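Appendix B. Chain record.
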Amino acid sequence: GAQTKARTYILLADSYLSKGDTVSGRPYIDEFFARAKSEEITPIHYRIKADIYSAVPGQDELVYNAYLDAVKADTTTDGKIELIKQGAALFKKKGVREKEGDMLAMLVQTRPKLSINDLFDATRAYYFALAYPKSLEMASKMKENFPNEVYGYEWVFNNFKILDSSYTENKLIP
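Structure tokens predicted for this chain:
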């Protein structure tokens, strides 16, 4: 009813989600976000929303935005990193490689210490999503930040091989 607290709706949505019934949980998560005050919403609420909507085909943008909101709402670096990893894993599982790459690129920006593995994962996700300019950007960062490793050079080459397949721009020649 009208006097029901927003917390009740998130509990119902989470309960349905834990049973695997995302269709039944969807109205409750929507009602929670309609009724809850901004100070009542925590990162886990956004993750629940993302998990519920991830089961609905064609809602990838809403799921991505829910993860972005969760990352913005989290106050700890470790919490942000964990949410980003969960989002990237979800998109990888669904085969939405460009969104996976977007999440991993966000991970590169969020981590206090740059990791070649994060750059490599983002590069590869974009590459297999056929988002070659984004893949090239990540590979170039890998090459610049880790010049003693071969992977950045290799993935720059792989991307230029596709982006300049006719060799009209001579991108492959240093």
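Further analysis of this model is presented in Appendix C.
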